[in-house]
Amino acid sequence: MPTNQLTAPTVVMDEFNLDGPAVEVEHLTKVYRTYSSSLRRAIAPFRKGPTGKKFVALNNVSATLQRGEVLAVLGRNGSGKSTLSKIIAGVTTPTSGTLRVNGRISAMLELTSGFDPQLTGVENIYLRALAMGIPREEAEERRPEIIAFADLGDHINQPVRTYSSGMKSRLGFAVTTSIDPDILIIDEALSVGDEIFRLKCIERMGAIRERGSSIVFVSHSLGTVKAFCTKAIWINRGVVQEDGDVGPVTQAYEEFLRKERSSLRDELREASDQDAVLEKSDVVQINEVRLTNASGSRTTTFVHGEDIYLHLGYTVKRPQAQLTFTYTITNSEDVEVFASDRRSPMLALDPSPGTHQVRARLIKPPLLGGGFRLTGELWNNASGFFVTHSNGRRFSIEQDDFVGTGIAAIECELTHE
Amino acid sequence: MLGDAIRATRQLALINYQNWQRTYAMAQVALTKRYSGSALGVAWAVIRPAIYIGAYWFAVSVGMRGGASAAVGAPYLLWLVPGNLAWFFMSDCLREAGESIRKNSQFVTKMTYPIATLPVSEVLSHFLVHLVMMCLNIILVLVSGYGLTLAAIQLPYFMLCALVLSVVVSTLFSALTAISADIGHLIKSALQLLFWVTPVLWTASHMSSPFRYIIMSNPLAYVIQGYRDSLVLNNWVTSYLPYTAYFWGLMGLLTLVSSLVFTKLAPEFADVL
Question: Does the predicted model carry a pTM greater than 0.80?
Fold first, then answer.
């Protein structure tokens, strides 16, 4: 057993043993202790029995990761996911329980991946290789591939402190995944970075998986998890809620999230907090949208050239600086026939709190026979807030005499010169 | 407790032994980092002590109006140099290697690195510079016409003493500083005070006991005295064997304490940094 780390005797990290499961975690518990001052913390290990305030990050967690599997670790912030990945990576020691790791680990526990800001990108590659115990020749061999993946151009020769966070994570990922690890741990390292970077990372992680290595993937991005991972484990407040195949576990987790979100919303509505997240209907609500003809009867069929009346009922719940009525007419193929000017002063509405009713008269629309859709929207141009009424109202135009084809009729007067 | 301490010492020694190549490579990295940023680069390793020694010599020599050389038994400037170089080496180690774990926290929190080798790398990087400085010191003694005596062969021994002292105490300090930044600041302030209490600029030989014993009980005083005896005062270590026994006894005790503290605090590093 390598004695590199002053670890607990219950942690066994064997780089060269590739038999058996890649990672085995049994009854793992991690308790963090907080002390009122750093002095007390320094003295604590020398006193009999534990002291300080207890925070249980992981409670009796057990899991197994076989070779070639990709394990997703799901959970809300503060659930203990990162603690688990840190323990597996060997960075922190468990309070109790056993951990067995077979194979070489490479971990990306944070974006910046422990680069020295004063050194250049290339120097940091060598430093990382040195820190991981990789011989210089091997580092030289892999250097071009790392530089190519990181795609930093000339910046690779500049000190890392000049890099943007995206650049740092690209380099970090390139270095972490270049050493052909048997077990790769990625802890939310893909959250910063554009689409292309994320694609490259997933591709590379896929290649690593093809080679037979195992991956521990801690992420909030359920889409990626569902597509890429084979197994999942869901931890909440340090306790395992579900584990097994990725499908059922992510389903359970998503259900949990949905419940949390709706209960949170209810709580906020009750608390009536100014800064809380609101639904649009909490600000302005459209109560009804009704199409009528000139005599006031509700209809959705109109004759070509007939005025169309739109009745709009709305309630203003939070005071708005201003409100404008806008409308859009699209035909049956969703081609936009007309969308009104959002800033038109003629379409200004009463923005005062309370319920209002307006009637919009579309003046002799020259629409030809066919199906159309009318969507009404209320816009606050000062704040950019807008509320739409569902998918709009369908109506149709009937035409008895043929005047032409198309969407709208344009009349023509012919004069002989 | 003693059993734990011995086990801890063995563990640390093993880790350092197994990883010595990496430790040496890291020492070189530390050197490049320290000097590559500035324009004068490595020259600072010589300029800095030169400035300090020059200042001390001027202040004390002029202040004492020539009495200094008589008090120490050799030309004052020549007498100052080896003692100061020894002090610079050891105090730099204690100060910087004492912070080595806190400064290099990424090795603790982001990867599995043998942290027990971090203070050793730092000490080693200072030692490499110190070696060069001592060579320059020897050249200085020869060039000044004062001449080297046979006692100079003791120098490697005293350099070894300095190295052991630095490694052992830095390991202790680095563990304490990593856990508690307050202790780190305390250590820094104590080192400042230590300069005046250690006979770097002055000699304790004229002091009466018990003051003399108290001052010389400081292990740094032993090392500094040894450097001076080797290069300037032509004294042999055999003339103070009990003192030597005391030094090594103290080193043994410090090794046990340092290893025990380090191994007990090490599991907490990742959680604190």
Answer: no
